[in-house]
Write a structure and sequence with these properties.
By secondary structure, the protein is of the alpha/beta class. It has one domain: Rossmann fold (3-Layer(aba) Sandwich). The strands form 2 sheets. Strands 3-2-1-4-5-6-9 form a 7-stranded parallel β-sheet, with helices on both faces. Strands 7-8 form a two-stranded antiparallel ribbon. The chain starts with 7 loop residues before the first strand and ends in a 6-residue tail after the last strand. GO terms for molecular function: oxidoreductase activity. It comes from Reyranella soli.
Length: 252
Protein backbone atom coordinates (compact mmCIF):
# COMPACT_ATOMS: atom_id res chain seq x y z
CA UNK A 1 0.00 0.00 0.00
CA UNK A 2 1.28 3.49 -0.87
CA UNK A 3 2.04 5.47 2.27
CA UNK A 4 0.70 8.82 0.98
CA UNK A 5 -2.17 7.65 -1.21
CA UNK A 6 -4.64 10.51 -1.68
CA UNK A 7 -2.50 13.08 0.14
CA UNK A 8 -1.46 16.43 -1.33
CA UNK A 9 1.80 17.91 -0.03
CA UNK A 10 3.02 21.47 -0.58
CA UNK A 11 6.81 21.78 -0.42
CA UNK A 12 8.63 25.09 -0.11
CA UNK A 13 12.12 24.89 -1.52
CA UNK A 14 10.83 22.00 -3.62
CA UNK A 15 13.12 22.55 -6.60
CA UNK A 16 16.32 21.20 -5.03
CA UNK A 17 17.96 19.56 -2.04
CA UNK A 18 15.78 18.03 0.67
CA UNK A 19 12.64 19.54 -0.86
CA UNK A 20 13.23 17.89 -4.23
CA UNK A 21 14.13 14.54 -2.66
CA UNK A 22 10.91 14.67 -0.65
CA UNK A 23 8.84 15.56 -3.73
CA UNK A 24 10.15 12.49 -5.54
CA UNK A 25 9.31 10.31 -2.54
CA UNK A 26 5.82 11.80 -2.15
CA UNK A 27 4.92 10.97 -5.75
CA UNK A 28 6.52 7.52 -5.51
CA UNK A 29 4.35 6.84 -2.44
CA UNK A 30 1.08 7.73 -4.18
CA UNK A 31 0.73 11.38 -3.19
CA UNK A 32 0.68 14.64 -5.12
CA UNK A 33 3.56 17.09 -4.66
CA UNK A 34 3.42 20.84 -5.20
CA UNK A 35 6.91 22.21 -5.76
CA UNK A 36 6.94 25.79 -4.52
CA UNK A 37 10.16 27.67 -5.20
CA UNK A 38 11.75 30.84 -6.58
CA UNK A 39 13.79 28.79 -9.06
CA UNK A 40 11.22 28.37 -11.83
CA UNK A 41 13.51 26.55 -14.27
CA UNK A 42 14.50 23.80 -11.79
CA UNK A 43 11.02 23.60 -10.31
CA UNK A 44 9.25 23.17 -13.64
CA UNK A 45 11.85 20.64 -14.81
CA UNK A 46 11.29 18.50 -11.72
CA UNK A 47 7.51 18.79 -11.98
CA UNK A 48 7.70 17.66 -15.61
CA UNK A 49 9.91 14.74 -14.56
CA UNK A 50 7.41 13.64 -11.90
CA UNK A 51 4.40 13.86 -14.21
CA UNK A 52 0.74 14.30 -13.32
CA UNK A 53 1.40 13.84 -9.62
CA UNK A 54 3.37 17.09 -9.39
CA UNK A 55 2.81 20.81 -9.90
CA UNK A 56 5.21 23.75 -9.84
CA UNK A 57 4.13 27.07 -8.36
CA UNK A 58 6.27 30.16 -7.83
CA UNK A 59 6.84 31.07 -4.19
CA UNK A 60 8.69 33.79 -2.30
CA UNK A 61 8.55 32.37 1.23
CA UNK A 62 8.97 35.80 2.86
CA UNK A 63 5.88 37.19 1.09
CA UNK A 64 2.45 36.47 2.58
CA UNK A 65 0.56 37.02 -0.69
CA UNK A 66 2.87 34.56 -2.44
CA UNK A 67 2.00 31.91 0.14
CA UNK A 68 -1.73 32.60 -0.27
CA UNK A 69 -1.40 32.08 -4.03
CA UNK A 70 0.63 28.87 -3.61
CA UNK A 71 -1.96 27.32 -1.28
CA UNK A 72 -4.80 28.40 -3.60
CA UNK A 73 -3.04 26.84 -6.61
CA UNK A 74 -2.56 23.63 -4.64
CA UNK A 75 -6.21 23.34 -3.68
CA UNK A 76 -7.44 24.34 -7.14
CA UNK A 77 -5.26 21.74 -8.88
CA UNK A 78 -5.47 18.78 -6.52
CA UNK A 79 -8.61 19.49 -4.49
CA UNK A 80 -7.10 19.93 -1.04
CA UNK A 81 -4.01 20.16 1.14
CA UNK A 82 -2.94 17.46 3.61
CA UNK A 83 0.77 18.07 4.13
CA UNK A 84 3.22 20.97 4.25
CA UNK A 85 7.00 20.76 4.20
CA UNK A 86 8.76 24.04 4.99
CA UNK A 87 12.11 23.19 3.44
CA UNK A 88 13.20 26.51 1.90
CA UNK A 89 16.22 27.85 3.70
CA UNK A 90 19.52 29.67 3.49
CA UNK A 91 22.72 29.29 5.48
CA UNK A 92 25.55 31.79 5.95
CA UNK A 93 28.66 31.97 8.11
CA UNK A 94 28.79 34.89 10.54
CA UNK A 95 29.25 35.85 14.19
CA UNK A 96 27.49 38.35 16.41
CA UNK A 97 30.26 40.88 15.65
CA UNK A 98 30.42 40.60 11.87
CA UNK A 99 26.77 39.95 10.96
CA UNK A 100 25.08 43.02 9.50
CA UNK A 101 21.49 43.88 10.29
CA UNK A 102 20.58 43.33 6.63
CA UNK A 103 22.12 39.85 6.62
CA UNK A 104 20.45 38.88 9.89
CA UNK A 105 17.08 39.98 8.51
CA UNK A 106 17.61 38.11 5.23
CA UNK A 107 18.44 34.81 6.93
CA UNK A 108 15.58 35.10 9.42
CA UNK A 109 13.10 36.25 6.76
CA UNK A 110 13.71 33.10 4.73
CA UNK A 111 14.21 30.55 7.48
CA UNK A 112 12.00 31.90 10.27
CA UNK A 113 9.42 34.23 8.75
CA UNK A 114 9.02 31.91 5.76
CA UNK A 115 8.16 29.00 8.04
CA UNK A 116 5.70 31.11 10.03
CA UNK A 117 3.93 32.28 6.86
CA UNK A 118 3.82 28.73 5.48
CA UNK A 119 2.16 27.36 8.61
CA UNK A 120 -0.29 30.25 8.76
CA UNK A 121 -1.28 29.87 5.10
CA UNK A 122 -1.64 26.10 5.20
CA UNK A 123 -3.70 25.62 8.35
CA UNK A 124 -7.06 26.88 6.94
CA UNK A 125 -6.76 24.58 3.89
CA UNK A 126 -5.77 21.63 6.08
CA UNK A 127 -8.75 22.28 8.37
CA UNK A 128 -11.01 22.18 5.33
CA UNK A 129 -9.43 18.87 4.29
CA UNK A 130 -10.07 17.34 7.71
CA UNK A 131 -6.54 17.58 9.05
CA UNK A 132 -2.94 17.20 8.02
CA UNK A 133 0.73 17.22 8.93
CA UNK A 134 3.21 20.09 8.90
CA UNK A 135 6.94 19.36 8.85
CA UNK A 136 9.37 22.22 9.44
CA UNK A 137 13.03 21.85 8.57
CA UNK A 138 15.15 23.19 11.41
CA UNK A 139 18.73 21.99 11.91
CA UNK A 140 21.11 20.53 14.44
CA UNK A 141 22.00 24.21 14.85
CA UNK A 142 18.46 24.75 16.06
CA UNK A 143 19.33 22.45 18.98
CA UNK A 144 22.86 23.65 19.79
CA UNK A 145 24.95 26.71 19.12
CA UNK A 146 27.82 27.32 16.72
CA UNK A 147 30.33 30.17 16.82
CA UNK A 148 30.33 30.42 13.02
CA UNK A 149 26.58 30.59 12.28
CA UNK A 150 24.88 33.18 14.50
CA UNK A 151 22.00 34.23 12.23
CA UNK A 152 21.38 30.66 11.08
CA UNK A 153 21.27 29.34 14.67
CA UNK A 154 18.84 32.10 15.64
CA UNK A 155 16.55 31.34 12.71
CA UNK A 156 16.57 27.57 13.16
CA UNK A 157 16.02 27.85 16.91
CA UNK A 158 12.99 29.98 16.11
CA UNK A 159 11.68 27.26 13.78
CA UNK A 160 11.99 24.68 16.58
CA UNK A 161 9.87 26.70 19.03
CA UNK A 162 7.42 27.91 16.37
CA UNK A 163 6.80 24.24 15.60
CA UNK A 164 5.85 23.54 19.21
CA UNK A 165 3.40 26.44 19.29
CA UNK A 166 1.71 25.33 16.06
CA UNK A 167 1.47 21.76 17.35
CA UNK A 168 -0.07 22.81 20.67
CA UNK A 169 -2.45 25.33 19.09
CA UNK A 170 -3.76 22.86 16.52
CA UNK A 171 -4.14 20.14 19.15
CA UNK A 172 -6.01 22.47 21.50
CA UNK A 173 -8.30 23.59 18.69
CA UNK A 174 -8.99 19.96 17.65
CA UNK A 175 -7.93 20.63 14.06
CA UNK A 176 -6.39 17.16 13.56
CA UNK A 177 -3.24 18.91 12.33
CA UNK A 178 0.15 17.77 13.60
CA UNK A 179 3.39 19.76 13.42
CA UNK A 180 6.94 18.47 13.94
CA UNK A 181 10.45 19.71 13.22
CA UNK A 182 13.26 17.82 11.51
CA UNK A 183 16.85 18.60 12.46
CA UNK A 184 19.36 17.47 9.83
CA UNK A 185 23.10 17.47 10.25
CA UNK A 186 25.21 18.54 7.28
CA UNK A 187 23.51 17.17 4.18
CA UNK A 188 25.19 17.00 0.77
CA UNK A 189 22.93 19.55 -0.95
CA UNK A 190 23.44 22.80 -2.89
CA UNK A 191 23.18 24.77 0.37
CA UNK A 192 26.54 23.55 1.66
CA UNK A 193 28.24 23.03 -1.72
CA UNK A 194 30.26 26.29 -1.51
CA UNK A 195 31.86 25.10 1.75
CA UNK A 196 33.04 21.72 0.52
CA UNK A 197 36.09 22.94 -1.42
CA UNK A 198 37.14 25.59 1.10
CA UNK A 199 40.17 24.88 3.26
CA UNK A 200 39.78 24.67 7.04
CA UNK A 201 43.21 24.31 8.58
CA UNK A 202 44.90 21.45 6.75
CA UNK A 203 41.60 19.85 5.70
CA UNK A 204 39.12 20.48 2.92
CA UNK A 205 35.71 21.74 3.94
CA UNK A 206 34.22 18.38 3.00
CA UNK A 207 36.62 16.43 5.20
CA UNK A 208 36.08 18.83 8.11
CA UNK A 209 32.30 18.52 7.86
CA UNK A 210 32.44 14.75 7.48
CA UNK A 211 34.55 14.40 10.62
CA UNK A 212 31.96 16.34 12.64
CA UNK A 213 29.63 13.35 12.27
CA UNK A 214 30.42 10.14 14.17
CA UNK A 215 29.19 8.15 11.15
CA UNK A 216 32.02 9.78 9.21
CA UNK A 217 30.16 11.22 6.24
CA UNK A 218 27.67 13.83 5.10
CA UNK A 219 24.01 12.91 5.00
CA UNK A 220 22.05 12.44 1.80
CA UNK A 221 18.89 14.38 0.99
CA UNK A 222 17.04 11.09 0.48
CA UNK A 223 17.79 10.03 4.05
CA UNK A 224 16.14 13.14 5.43
CA UNK A 225 13.25 12.73 2.97
CA UNK A 226 12.46 9.29 4.39
CA UNK A 227 12.14 10.77 7.88
CA UNK A 228 9.86 13.47 6.46
CA UNK A 229 7.79 10.80 4.71
CA UNK A 230 7.14 9.13 8.07
CA UNK A 231 5.97 12.44 9.54
CA UNK A 232 3.73 13.26 6.58
CA UNK A 233 2.14 9.82 6.69
CA UNK A 234 -0.44 8.46 9.11
CA UNK A 235 2.27 6.23 10.58
CA UNK A 236 3.29 9.15 12.82
CA UNK A 237 -0.26 9.92 13.97
CA UNK A 238 0.74 10.22 17.68
CA UNK A 239 3.74 12.48 17.05
CA UNK A 240 3.36 16.25 17.29
CA UNK A 241 5.47 19.11 18.65
CA UNK A 242 8.60 16.98 18.58
CA UNK A 243 12.12 17.15 17.18
CA UNK A 244 13.26 14.41 14.82
CA UNK A 245 17.05 14.38 14.41
CA UNK A 246 18.85 13.05 11.32
CA UNK A 247 22.48 13.98 11.91
CA UNK A 248 24.81 10.98 11.77
CA UNK A 249 25.32 11.21 15.53
CA UNK A 250 26.54 14.84 15.52
CA UNK A 251 24.45 16.03 18.46
CA UNK A 252 25.25 12.89 20.44
Amino acid sequence: MSRLEGKVVLISGGASGIGAATARLVVRQGGQAVLADRDEAKGRALADELGDGALFTALDVADETSWTKAVAATVETFGGLHGLLNAAGVGVRNSIEDCSLAEFRRVNDINGLGTFLGCKAAIPAMKQAGGGSIVNISSVLGLRGASYAMAYCASKGAVRLLTKHVALHCAQMKYNIRCNSVHPGYIDTPMIAPRLDQSIGNMSGRQWLEELHPLGRLGRAEEVAHMILFLLSDESSFSTGSEFVCDGGLTA
